[in-house]
Amino acid sequence: xxxxxxxxxxxxxxxxxxxxxxxxxxxxxxxxxxxxxxxxxxxxxxxxxxxxxxxxxxxxxxxxxxxxxxxxxxxxxxxxxxxxxxxxxxxxxxxxxxxxxxxxxxxxxxxxxxxxxxxxxxxxxxxxxxxxxxxxxxxxxxxxxxxxxxxxxxxxxxxxxxxxxxxxxxxxxxxxxxxxxxxxxxxxxxxxxxxxxxxxxxxxxxxxxxxxxxxxxxxxxxxxxxxxxxxxxx
Length: 234
What we know:
With 234 residues, the chain is an alpha+beta fold. It has helices spanning 18-25, 112-116, 191-197, 202-212, 220-232; strands spanning 3-6, 56-62, 65-75, 80-84, 91-94, 99-104, 107-111, 124-130, 134-145, 168-179, 185-188. Strands 1, 2, 3, 4, 5, 6, 7, 8, 9, 10 and 11 form an eleven-stranded mixed β-sheet that branches.
């Protein structure tokens, strides 16, 4: 059974009060011993975060212990899980080798290598469907040169501070995998790859997907979620 450790509120402390801060943080102090979040030293458009720069309430299983009451975000360019210190004036990186899973903004995430073994894809993955099988996705942000603004549509983020005179941009990519009931992980880049897993129900699935797409095409994430959910209820 995973131990439960609640984070108590910690007041803002002067720098020379570090020992008092660690004492007040108690068991959660382990979370804040990591290195500071990476600061990107160049001008860029877009965001390197999973969704955006706002930290969200969450919880994490770290080194076998559940910590609640955290403020979390993910650097999707480096695949770092970030936590704000109790004072709120610094962001620290949680060492990936100790993170098993976490919730951020009510959404579940997995570190596949700590859940399914070292041969699985690296980084953090959001669970978008969780049944006997799972559909998971990874957001990846790539820093690219953009001299003509052609990549603006690929940011996957409505940047309120977008500048036309900035020539580097973080673009948005999504990777999707299917996780079988016995833990087999299959990358899904095309619909046909998922349909091969459920080929014995192909006709019924095609009919169901067609009914959903009467009002517009499903993207790959929506398609995978709908297919797996349908297959598990039939």
